[in-house]
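Z., the sequence and structure:
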Amino acid sequence: MKKLSHQLREVFVGAVSALALTLVAGMAASPYAVAGEEDAKALLKAMTDYMAAQKAISFDFDAILEVVTDDGQKLALASSGDVTLSRPDKIRASRSGGFADIETIFDGTKLTVLGKNKNVYTQVKIPGSIDHLVDELKDKYNRPLPAADLLLTNAYDELMANVVDVKDLGSGVIGGTECDHLAFKAKEVDWQIWIAQGDRPYPCRYSIASKLIDGDPQYSVQVSNWKTGDEVANDSFAFEAPDGAKQIDLAELKKMKDLGELPSNFTIGDKQ
């Protein structure tokens, strides 16, 4: 059994991690860097405005969550899934990681979490918008949605909170799509984003690094099969329990290791 660092809990609570990018000294002071900073902010603002304006969105994702053991070994946990949303108040997200197969459905009044591998589900009343749901899941239930920060209608303000340095790193290619590559430095995290060029500036890749944890473990999500508007398949966002599924309360769900971010043979370490 791998014993994880006590501070690892911060990774899952804040959904943070990623390798910090080292740039040449003095770049931030150059006139080019100042122009690059403004360009980067404009590109990010254009992306978040585009995202917030879409009434219907769907995409697939591949995620990597790095964890650090108490002996300093860095491990990468991979998962894949998909997200479909209809603004202002409906979303369906799935995530399969080999050790967990979870579907989350929100219909504007209640949240349903289905553990497919255990054939159990729980439901919680959370009336409100997707923005409200994202905050509730992250802050109250410790179950953040994939790339949730990017789905908010006020994503720019949330992403730029506490940012102290911004860099435009030019172009990169993610999944065959040419992207603008931006890097941001904040007090507790560093993060990078690759934004598709053109009239559909969606986030192709998003990575976050925590500076609170030794080893700078990374959380990254790569987006594919991006669709908006009429391209998105119709979804009633209604939950139908599978045959034989057992409804459980939230407290019982939280105790099930196979429905979390970590495999059941991993534990979050205590100070010893």
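The helical segments are 9-14, 31-53, 130-139, 148-151, 155-160, 250-255. The two ends are 17 Å apart (CA to CA).

Let me know what you think.
H.
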